[in-house]
Amino acid sequence: MSYIGHIRGRVHLLRAGLYLTAAFLAVLPVHGYSQDSRPISVYASETLRLVLEDLGPLYEARTQTPIEVFYSKSSDLARRIASGAPVDLFVTGDIEWATWLQAQGFVRAEDRLIFAIDRLVMIAPENSPVEPVPAVELLLSEWRNSEELLGLADPERNGAGLRARNVLTAFQDIVGPLDALEDRLALAEDRAVLKRLVKRGELGLAITYLTEAKSADGVKVVARFDPADHQPILAVAARTKLGNAEADSFLAFLGSPEAQTVLMRAGFETP
């Protein structure tokens, strides 16, 4: 494990390979449809890739309307929409960016749908001796009295990391003030890097989203934060100002029992 740079004192930034940002990282394949079918174009945060790769084909099979999904960071996609990118829907796990677009006039409140809720958990390597505990306070107390680093996604780049850092303030009576913890927190570039570091045992504990933990091999959930301990983690879909009204059918689908079953299987809770 390499430590690159310092953030606010002795907080470490963990790097595992080059940090790549791309405007579009992948496109769901579209085929077998009439040429008269206009695809619904979707900008979606990379963190929702796995569940949308399940939901997209279900919607296509039901409606015979193709879906084209472009994945990247929510912040990059929101800024592209604000720059006039002609896309129908914005789907993100960071509701703040949908709210930002709404404030800029690129999304209307009535065209938004909160379709899933995530939560924060603590994870450890699958082969770790750390056993799951019923209350996160127990594990935080053990960590505070150890020399173990606690992993977070970089709060400057990731909503998950920002929420993870903020949730620690709810437990200052156990872990102490954040300023005193800077040498105990290890920041990973993003959630994917964080999961890899935990899986390899380079980090013994980390805070991330439940859905991230469920999608990762080699890690286990050892404690769950009460949703009351942190800001709600809401997944939202919104039709953009330039979006075709036909895209509203996909919004409705995300709230359907069929879609909600897929979301709950991925670790999401229903709104």
Verbal overview:
- The protein is of the alpha/beta class and 271 residues long.
- It has helices at residues 49-63, 74-82, 95-104, 136-144, 159-167, 172-175, 191-199, 210-214, 248-254, 257-265; strands spanning 2-7, 11-15, 40-45, 67-72, 89-92, 107-118, 120-125, 150-153, 185-188, 205-209, 219-224, 233-240.
- The strands form 2 sheets. The chain has a 7-stranded mixed sheet with strand order 1-2-9-8-10-7-11, with helices on both faces. It has a 5-stranded mixed sheet with strand order 4-3-5-12-6.
- The protein is elongated and about 60 Å long.
- The chain starts with a strand and ends in a 6-residue tail after the last helix.
- The relative contact order is 0.21.
Topology record:
Blueprint: E1 2-7, E2 11-15, E3 40-45, H1 49-63, E4 67-72, H2 74-82, E5 89-92, H3 95-104, E6 107-118, E7 120-125, H4 136-144, E8 150-153, H5 159-167, H6 172-175, E9 185-188, H7 191-199, E10 205-209, H8 210-214, E11 219-224, E12 233-240, H9 248-254, H10 257-265
Parallel strand pairs: 2-9, 3-4, 3-5, 8-9, 8-10
Antiparallel strand pairs: 1-2, 5-12, 6-12, 7-10, 7-11
Helix pairs in contact: 2-3
Keywords, separated by commas or semicolons:
single chain, disordered N terminus, 10 helices, 12 strands, 271 residues, alpha/beta, 5-stranded mixed sheet, 7-stranded mixed sheet
